[in-house]
Design a protein that fits this description.
By secondary structure, the protein is mostly helical. The protein contains 20 helices and eleven strands. It has a three-stranded mixed β-sheet with strand order 7-10-11, with no helix packed on it. The protein has a two-stranded antiparallel sheet with strand order 1-3. Strands 2-9 form a two-stranded antiparallel ribbon. Belongs to the SusD family.
């Protein structure tokens, strides 16, 4: 891998419409913060960097740069959904709004990427500014003299967080400027993008440096803070993504400025293998918590456990929005994702297309065809992750079905389903696909607007690392060991061993990632890095359920959008978001992404 030497690089700066947000260190805390620190007008900068406790307090808000339940914390809808609704997994449900992700009609443009993506660029650079500001001051601070060991760990945390931000920048935008010093008003703002390969090299070196200092584990009271294991997990995902087809110079969808997207490192799959193995060497080869049923599996996502490598903690006083009541409750998955008949908003409706990825319990696949009895005999994770017609949920069976009307009458033969478009609650939130998300829901709560005391948003976990390892191995034709680690995940889900090899094994790994990691923010990027356009632009399908006048229940498979231009469309430019229009036009050296 190309060595990236920070000391040889000249600082690069940004001149954008959002430059004011980048100038002041504390600006970031007014944008999308959840944790507050002492206001700057009450504590001078000298005092802050002179006291190790105050320095630690500066680090806490930087953790807001990690993902959480909200894809965008300062947007009404973005507070209540994540990226699953822009992936193969699901669609945004309420009124079929397109302005949330802008993935229908003409798709993304440099002036419109949908509300949820609109501020990604500016927010990430704001956090880069705050981390750079911290790192520019900590070494020469009195706090470093006062407690050098603790200060070095805090410094490593911030380097970890900065590297993690860069992993997100390059996933969304390709190669970006590598900035290691805070921007100042007096700077001459000349701005160019570094190559994708240089960005990956920078991220890896930063993570290696952080991992050398961070503790391997943290006590329970510090759940959610960076560790050596977390740093190595971020490295594993980064190198796996870099090795994938999306960045293969011979497969690039882009034809200009290819250095912004390509990764030509010959040892790329071996590097990805070694990075995953480094994490496995810490967590163990048989670390997965075993489960007996769907409920046990569901519980893995409701509280801290040994399989979580890095997560964003949520406690009784810490939500995406507010500190209680309506705003807090519906920013968490219970109310945001429950069916409408439970008072839920059902905002991310899983697509029928995605649900067909779940096997039968004997390990056979659906073959992409809707089974005659779609909810019978499916694999355990189908029942753990999905709400569907007839599922037992919060004390009753879910019912999406509308009843036929009696001949010659205007009344239904039977009551419409409580979760149907004629049911309870706000029926505009009734699922249009015949599915809702069950994963992450705490059914021990008395109501969907309750608050769990300690439910995490999981960012990295052991099962992903095993699958990263399996994929890197399979790409090197090391099928035996790849199957071993694939089966560790699949068998924990009570599926029979997978025995295939070659291309079939690679496809089995992809299916396992879709199912095991569903709704955790992976699929949006996985389908892109695999160049799987069938799962990027597709006819969104669902099931309509009805009860006939004899009381018989049946379903119809249907396309949600009969006009193909209103379905999930695909353009090659959408492998990446565009650089925001103002930034790319004000600074000509800031190359716009391909196709925009």
């Amino acid at each position: 891998m190309t060595n990236y030497n920070l000391k040889r690089r000249k600082m690069k700066n940004i001149k954008t419409l959002s430059i004011i947000c980048l100038i002041t260190f504390f600006t970031i805390f007014s944008c999308e913060d959840v944790i507050d620190v002492e206001p700057k007008d009450r504590v001078t900068e000298v005092a802050v960097y002179g006291d190790i406790d105050q320095v630690e307090a500066l680090v806490y808000p930087m953790y807001n740069s990690t993902e959480g339940w909200a894809i965008r914390r300062n947007d009404f809808w973005g507070q209540r959904i994540n990226i699953e609704s822009a992936s193969f997994e699901a669609k945004f449900n309420f009124k079929d709004l397109n302005n949330i992700f802008q993935l229908r009609a003409g798709g993304w443009s440099k002036s419109n990427v949908g509300l949820s993506f609109a501020s990604k660029w500016q927010n990430y650079w704001s956090y880069i500014q705050s981390t750079n500001e911290f790192l520019s001051k900590i070494d020469a601070s009195d706090a470093m003299v006062q407690d050098p060991e603790r200060a070095e760990v805090l410094k490593a945390e911030v380097r970890f967080l900065r590297a993690n931000i860069y992993t997100k920048l390059i996933k969304y935008y390709g190669g970006v400027p590598i900035l290691t010093e805070p921007a100042k008003i007096t700077d001459s703002f000349e701005y160019t993008r570094d190559s994708y390969e240089d960005c990956v090299s920078f991220i890896v070196e930063e993570l290696d440096a952080a991992a050398a200092i961070l503790p391997t584990t943290r006590p329970a009271a510090e759940f959610g803070r960076a560790t050596k294991t977390a740093a190595l997990a971020v490295k594993s995902r980064t190198l796996l993504y870099a090795a994938s087809d999306l960045h293969d110079p011979s497969l690039l969808p882009q034809t200009t400025n290819t250095e912004l997207y390509s990764y030509s490192v010959a040892s790329k799959w071996e590097d990805a293998e070694n990075a995953a193995k480094a994490v496995i060497d810490i967590v163990g080869e048989d670390a997965l918590i075993q489960v007996a049923n769907a409920t046990d599996y569901q519980n893995l996502f409701l509280s801290p456990n040994d399989n979580i490598i890095f997560a964003r903690p949520y406690t009784a006083g810490f939500y995406e929005v507010g500190t209680g009541g309506f705003a807090a409750a519906n920013s968490l998955p219970d109310q945001a994702q429950s069916p409408s008949g439970y008072g839920g908003w059902g905002l991310s409706s899983p697509t029928l297309n995605f649900t067909l990825e779940f096997n039968f319990n004997d390990g056979t696949t659906t073959g992409g065809v809707t089974p005659a009895n779609p909810n019978d005999g499916r694999e355990m994770r189908y029942y753990a992750n999905l709400n569907f017609q007839g599922a037992n949920f919060r004390g009753r069976q879910i019912n999406y079905a509308l009843s036929d009307t009696l001949p010659g009458q205007n009344t239904p033969a039977f009551p419409h389903g409580l979760d149907s478009p004629q049911g309870l609650g706000n029926v505009l939130h009734s699922s249009k696909t015949g599915y809702n998300i069950r994963k992450f829901q705490d059914e021990s709560l008395d109501a969907t607007n309750g608050i769990s005391p300690n439910r995490p948003y999981i960012l990295y976990r052991v099962a992903e690392i095993y699958l990263n390892y399996a994929e890197a191995l399979a790409e090197q034709n090391k099928d035996g060991l790849a199957r071993t680690y694939l089966n560790k995940v699949s068998s924990r889900a009570l599926q029979p061993d997978i025995t295939v090899g070659g291309d079939a094994l690679k496809e089995a790994i992809k299916r396992e990632r879709r199912v095991e990691l569903c709704f955790e923010g992976h699929n949006f990027f996985d389908e892109r890095r695999w160049l799987n356009e069938d799962h990027l632009g597709f006819d969104i399908k669902g099931l309509k359920w009805k009860t006939d006048t004899s009381g018989n229940l049946s379903f119809e498979e249907y396309s949600l959008f009969t006009d193909s231009s209103q379905g999930r469309i695909w353009f090659d430019r959408q492998y990446y978001l565009p650089i925001p229009e103002g930034d790319s036009e004000i600074v000509p050296t800031l190359i716009q992404n391909y196709g925009y």
